[in-house]
Amino acid sequence: MAPSTTTVSAPQLVVGLLLALTTVAAVSTAESAPAVNTSCVTGSAGAAVSIGYGGARASAGAGMSLGAGVYRATCPRAEEIVRAAVQRAVAADPRMAASLLRLHFHDCFVNGCDGSVLLDDKPPFFVGEKTAVPNANSLRGFEVIDAIKAELERECPETVSCSDLLAIAARDSVVVSGGPSWEVEVGRKDSRTASLQGANTNLPAPTSGVTTLVQKFRNVGLSAKDMVALSGAHTIGKARCTSFSARLSGVGVSTGGAVGASKDLTFLQSLQQLCSGSAGSALAHLDLATPATFDNQYYINLLSGDGLLPSDQELASPGAGAVPGADDDVSSLVALYAFDASVFFEDFAESMLRMGRLAPGGGSSDGEVRMNCRVVNSST
Ligand code: HEM
Questions:
Q1: Where does heme b bind (predicted)?
Q2: Does domain 10-27+39-237+286-379 have CATH number 1.10.520.10?
Q3: Using a 6 Å cutoff on CB, does residue 163 contact ligand 1?
């Protein structure tokens, strides 16, 4: 596991402290979390924290029942296999942790966590989600998932679903990057369908304003607080110039408080240099300071104007204080997480569990355990 590095420079800390101290009192960190019991969440940036969900199983809605120990009897080595494979994949390619974490998010936001994001197109008969705008030329890690699935199939055939594999791999990717750990709830079934339109509609865009971001999360049953906590995933990984070009418009001229305005002009100018002449495909770290470490640096960056995506920087904008329909003050949460890494870790783990419970509308009876994550069973 990577060491804890929640290093904060003096000016950043001052900004963070001031903002946090004036706003922390306004933020409820307990929020409306489900009944908490004793599953342990640990993280290297803070003390071990305790969260969990009432009982061994949690209902994910629509007849899907998730539990922490489902594979203990049927495939005892499942989690061990995934963890070891994620560790190997990240050792070979440090960005893979970010890519695997993002796959789970893009899976869950389109008709629940059902592995639909992994299905390949089969023209002209089947259109999956891989060519959706947020996914095309962007999502990665499919080969890693294939390799883990093949190993799981050898160990215990048709037992561990692809959607559960994504949820476990996401957790292990966070842990291997130095972030918190939590007990993954499993028992999902894989879909036999996918929705290109759902992927295009449900997933937030990097140009979305904070009201839209809150709305997209609410649309799937998650809160503004979940949105802010889960956005902290952008503490690892990379983005293409095309994803943050809106941050660069107006660099060098007075931007008068628009999204493109930064307290850190040097940051934006270096991005402009990176992107000029790259045809939009050059990559920048989402967290310029500690790019491969899962810590709270993302929020510290936002406070100093160094968020990469326009949607990231929006979370710290003056307008993010009072978003219609938001149950929490978005910019106060940013300050809180910048100030206290252990609160971020705890909230992130809780929100990952909540996101992991998003269930397909049709219920588990429509699902299967795919043998190959890229195709539904009847066609293999
Ligand atoms: C809040 C709304 C969000 C927006 C608008 C957003 C948008 C984006 C965009 C545009 C990229 C770069 C894609 C590219 O340039 O190819 C990206 C990368 C990433 N996103 Fe998000 N995202 C959001 C929330 C999340 C959430 C909830 C998670 C996970 C819990 C997540 C995890 C990641 C990761 C880890 C990467 C880096 C992936 C890599 O390096 O392969 N994002 N996101």
A1: 234
A2: yes
A3: no
